[in-house]
Amino acid sequence: MTTESVSKGCFVFKPSTKKKKMTFTAADYFGEHVKDSKDSKVRFETYQTLWQQMKSEAEKIQEDLNRKVFDSLLEFIRKSHSNLLEKMDEWRHRMRATEIPAAALVLGVNVPDHAMTFQILSEQLRESVTPYVVSLEAKECQGVKHILQKVFGQLLGHSIRLEADDETDVQPHPAELRQKKMLCSLASLADWYTSVKRKTVSVMPGKKRSSPTAGHLQTPPVVIIFKDLESFHAKVLQDFIVICSQYVNQLPFTLIFGIATSSMTIHKTLPHSVSSLLCIELFQSVSCTEHLAAVIDKLCIVEHFYSQPLSILCCSLDEAENRTKNLTHEKCEMIRQLPSFMRYVENQEPEKQVELLTSDTFLKKEIKTLLRHLHNYHENYIPVLRCLHALTTSLPKFPLGKQIRELHSACLERNVWESEEYTSAFQLLRMMAKDELVAALQKCCDVLKTSRVKQQADTLTKVEEFIDQLQKLDKIVEDETVAQKSLQKKTDLYQLQKTLLEMKDSRKSKKLSKFETLRLEVLDFIDSIVRMHLKPPEVMPLYEVVYFSGASTLRKHLNAAPRIALHTALNNPYYYLENEALKSEAGTISNSAPDICIAYKLHLECGRLINLCDWLEAFATVVAAASGVDPESDLVAGQVDETIHARFIRAVSELEFLGFVKPTKQKTDHVARLTWGGC
Q1: Residue 436 and residue 566: Cα distance in Å, rounded?
Q2: What's the pTM?
Q3: Among the four residues 335, 525, 579, 656, which has the most C-beta atoms within 10 Å?
Q4: CB within 8 Å of 549: residues ≥ 6 apart
Q5: Max CA-CA distance within the chain?
């Protein structure tokens, strides 16, 4: 018997009280504390445009700096096997044929991005030398088998892509790839290389392939890049090199070792029995100081656009003039309150002062004029700065700095010609020899030729005239030498006494030579253009719009203080996270703080040795209060919740990793405290 029941009911669905989660973009943070969000978005877009320009220029600079070492490295790889193939009949080359060409590329620990460097190197190798390039990282190569699998995977993957371009080739089944992965050995790799090489040679001349093989060698080498040599296991690397040396006649290997420390790492990692199998050549990357000098401007661009609302005018001159027309009254008032503009107004006539302070229309016209002057100042500032650096960079002890950023910093702070360093530099320049002075002026000419400012074209003409005059002094010196030699000819006693008296008088009066006079004239001219164009930007009205003057913020980014930052983050997490729940009074411990912060503040209350059991009980008491659980319930029984115990162990491990505590052999259930005072 079946029973059917039908129920009817009325159901109420209450609306959800949860608010829809709002997502913010990076542009929203620029207008977080500003009423006019439209201007903040324009500021953000301007910042993004300039940032992309600077990023592309920085990448181009990095590529240019690495071009020399890359060209040398590519040439080494090209010649490493071609020379051996051409001269196999010579005994010396037959002996070298048993060695694997290896390049030690020393990048240094402070190179901005090793990954980008190796990526550019791999692309250039594939374009102009060989399609067979393998990049290996230590974390993926724990054994020889893993290295062979990576080599097979990257080489066969490239081979499949090349064959896919051919109309007659068919994509292999995944089972075939798995089978190839299982048979990873250099013998299989040698057979694959021979078949690929034979197939490439047998391609009909009229048949076109879409893969770019232009510039590749007839027998392209197999290049294996070890990105982080120091991280590779020494035994694994040694075994792999020994195995490769047995197949060097069948597989044209070339190894590239990426080194972050020094070239001695190779000899520390590889014993003589292994390093003797390599033909090593050293390649040194550009130092980090050159990278820093090239891209130093990127350090403060974000802070400038974030903190300065008037940075909306920090763009090209044409765009800035268009944006000036749309300035609101609030923005005009902000401009009137700028210190540089207030000084400018004070120096104007009373009638103009009234117009500047009351009429927005008149103010906007004046802003356009001031922006033109500001851009003109900047266009003249850069070439003159580079000229002064070219003149002083070779002086002993570098009175104005070795890097151009040091000279730039000195010019931004005050009138550089009033400093003792500037006076010392010009004293040394007054003793400069003619050849050195001509070489320095020639560098100035090279700098000025890149400037498009008309005023600098006149400066270039004047400098070129000085160079011509200095070079013509050789003929004048020769004439004076001939005149001196005429004194050595036979003459009477009267003429000889007269000549000697004239020479004595000339020494007393210290008459300058023609070169010394011309040298002083050159230096006076250089000094005049320095005083004209290297004034600090503070003298220019509206300089705050374009120039970032927050030196303290810049020093905070450049001069890292990790211990102070760690102490601040652990002692007061609200400082960085800005979460209202983390606010706490001084000397108290917030139970909503991260576990490591709670453990850190508790450890500050202990002495040299910390009892782990007492530390755990105090930690459990604070954490349990956050969850509303009675902390005495578990502690009375002598047990702590397993989750809280695990959180405590993790917090202590993190503090040990950061260097605040360490295990001690004095007492097994204690740890030793390592920091004192404020941190």
Answers
A1: 51
A2: 0.53
A3: 335
A4: 538
A5: 158
